[in-house]
Write a structure and sequence with these properties.
α3 packs parallel to α5 and α5 (about 125-150) runs antiparallel to α6. The chain is elongated, with a radius of gyration of 25 Å. It has helices spanning about 1-10, 15-35, 40-70, 75-95, 125-150, 155-180, 190-205, 215-220, 245-250, 255-270, and strands at about 105-110, 115-120, 230, 240. The strands form two sheets. A two-stranded antiparallel ribbon has the order 1-2. A two-stranded antiparallel ribbon has the order 3-4. The longest helix has 29 residues, at about 40-70. The protein has ten helices and four strands; from the N terminus they run ααααββααααββαα.
Length: about 280
């Protein structure tokens, strides 16, 4: 419920795309944990289907996030085509092993520390991997170009961290595609890449003020506190007040003399450790 509320309150598509990618990563990781504890082919396939419920949307949502961040306008028909492709990919996985579009010749190896799915790749698997490379390549080009256009130092730092996060994920994805004996055949290295990449992006977003994040925090958290909140600048002028403060002092923000009187009464109350009586 909280996730739905956050997604609803974040008005900008930029925030929604990143939030969806975080939810997709969570589903992906839960599914992978289930895979590590599945010792029959049937249970392993159930875990794979759950994991892909997030995995098929992770790269797409990050790609759309980068497009919004770099102010690229994608045609609606193009976005819908990408979404439809992800739906088709997941449908093919959901119907495995009844079809061989994504995986074929399935078996489960249980001779190691963790169970491993042995399979051949179908046409949709190859197409999906190609789409992942497309997302990575185009996304990095957009980010690097936007970074060099940006004049604001903080924004350039934000772009640097997001580019680094994408590169971390890309290296892990490349290792998975190429295959490293003794590592990628035992463990899905992309999980580490997704995790660390998302952490780095979260740091970039909240350290360097992703557009609209401050507004969201103020509107969704501070405005909904049960207590009145006032924010005052160095010149002793009220710059912000939430809804509860406005209910207590309806003339806030209208008359500067009234604002000064309110601040004086609050300071006096704090100094004297007394209550403020309103309406008398």
């Amino acid at each position: 419920m909280l996730s739905v509320m956050v997604l609803y309150r974040w008005k900008q598509q930029l925030h929604k795309c990143f939030f969806i990618s975080c939810i997709a990563l969570l589903l992906n990781n839960i599914g992978y944990l289930l895979e590590l504890n599945a010792w029959t082919l049937e249970s392993y396939l159930v875990a794979v289907k759950f994991s892909y419920l997030g995995r098929v949307w992770y790269a797409l949502s990050l790609f759309l996030f980068v497009a919004k961040l770099t102010e690229k306008r994608l045609p609606k028909i193009f976005r819908n085509a990408l979404i439809l492709f992800s739906v088709v990919v997941y449908a093919s996985i959901l119907l495995t092993p009844e079809n061989s579009l994504y995986y074929t010749d399935l078996s489960l190896a249980v001779d190691g520390i963790f169970p491993r799915l042995i399979h051949k790749n179908g046409i949709l698997h190859h197409l999906n991997m190609s789409m992942q490379l497309f997302y990575i390549g185009i996304g990095l080009i957009w980010l690097i170009a936007a970074r060099y256009r940006e004049k604001n130092k903080l924004k350039r730092c934000q772009f640097n961290m997001i580019i680094f996060a994408i590169l971390v994920e890309s290296v892990c994805f490349g290792m998975k595609l190429v295959g490293i004996p003794g590592l990628t055949d035992m463990y899905d290295i992309t999980m580490l890449g997704y995790f660390f990449g998302t952490i780095i992006m979260l740091i970039a977003i909240f350290s360097y003020e992703l557009p609209g994040t401050e507004e969201f925090v103020r509107e969704f958290i501070i405005d909904r506190l049960s207590e009145g909140v006032l924010a005052v600048d160095k010149e002793d002028r009220i710059q912000y007040f939430n809804l509860q403060a406005k209910e207590l002092y309806p003339e806030l923000g209208v008359d500067s003399a009234f604002d000064a009187e309110v601040l004086t009464s609050i300071r006096r109350s704090i100094k004297e450790e007394s209550n403020i009586v309103i309406g008398e």
